[in-house]
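Progress note, project year one: complex with zinc ion.
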Amino acid sequence: MASKRDALPFVFRGDDMLVSENGDGSGVLPSIESVSLDSAFRQEVGVLDGRSCVAVDASPEAEAPEGTAFRNLLELSASLDDRYFPMAGRAKQIVAWNRETRFCGRCGAEPERVERFEKRCPRCGMMFHPRISPAMIVRVHRGDEILLARSPGFPPKIYSVLAGFVEPGESIEDTVRREVTEEVGVEVGNIEYFGNQPWPFPNSLMIGFTAEYVSGEIEIDENEIEDAGWYTAENHPPLPPRLSIARTMIEDYLGRFGD
Ligand SMILES: [Zn+2]
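Model obtained:
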């Protein structure tokens, strides 16, 4: 049985999560005892190693207790324990869902919780579940090269594979073809499933594919892409963070051609 005393707290203030500051910045979760923050929302979101995991929404003014700090979850992904990261992402999304459904978008009443992850508007009956946005992520290859691109929102120097949200009425393969053509102007074929990953920034499910270059010269959509090019194991730019499916997909390919 998961005991309350041993619970693992995933405390969010905005998009930042509370971690212990134990000197090495390794992003360890604080003990539940140290978390006495006033919070309007606490919700069990799962169990890890027999310990109950609790999502907590701290108020925007909350101060981190002594020995702890609020840190950006995406930045923490570089150091957070691999097993904690998916649960932290789940907690972050549940906290955000609760915040973002305080009022019904159809009639303005306050929805009531009916299940753990379900609210219903008492006036008009509208249902609110945590929103998950499917997105494709695709590794386009041409011989020993892969196509990497930079979005304006990326950390400095980082390049990655292409990604984009599914639009209503599209199959995920339609999204792959459309986004690749829109973002970099090339045609792809042989689209194959690679794997998938929940990505809580803010609420994506990244569905990974590989695709072969068919035709066209790179011509970037400057609204979405800053730069794009063909890279090899020898000359590629800095890559996305560990724990991301993007990094896994890139290393999987470049690893075949490296030394
Ligand atoms: Zn309503």
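The domain at 3-100 is CATH 3.90.79.20 (Nucleoside Triphosphate Pyrophosphohydrolase).
The two ends are 48 Å apart (CA to CA).
No further modelling is planned for this target in the current period.
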